[in-house]
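Reopening this one. Same input as before:
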Amino acid sequence: MKNLFYLFAIIIIASSNFSCNNDDTTSKDSLTISTISVDSFIASPEKWINQEITIKGTVSHVCRHSGKKLFLFDKNPDNTVKINAGGQFSVFEITLEGSDIEVKGKVIEDSRIDEQYLTEWEQEIKNSVADEVVKTCNADGKAVTGQANAENKEVTNADSINDPYAEVKEMRKELEESGKTYIPIYAIDCISLKEIKKQ
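Same output, byte for byte:
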């Protein structure tokens, strides 16, 4: 009789442990977000680092050189997240541009913007903005060279409007204000991708 009581007690303890584990799994599953928007991701990408997420957006650009990256946006085309090719996609097709897609992938720290990065970026701009190279754009968005500036006086002040260093200055300011030695840039390594058909 005593042995039967102990056996019964062990079964109750084991079954209660089993149900606690099930509750644990359920609570973890309930925290998993099925799909997030690009804007939600951009708001706090660091909270998703090293996690698998599903993100939905519109493809603004596919890299022409390698096809190994594309960029997604939501409401604002200026706010994009980079998706690296991977999983079932070794490259992305150019035809994806303008498509709405859903990507499952792992969030990674893709690169870091630090003082060295900004200095090299400035040097690249300096090299491409030599006197004989394109300096400004006219009202139609066409490139105007240094020589053309002399003929088109109306665009000579465009240098101050179209500052080629504007992005570098903005990033440097952001770096200084952060109080950190670098700004992490996040991306998503693609695991799977599906196109969302427009209705």
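So the earlier flakiness isn't reproducible anymore. For the record, The chain is about 35% helix and 30% strand.
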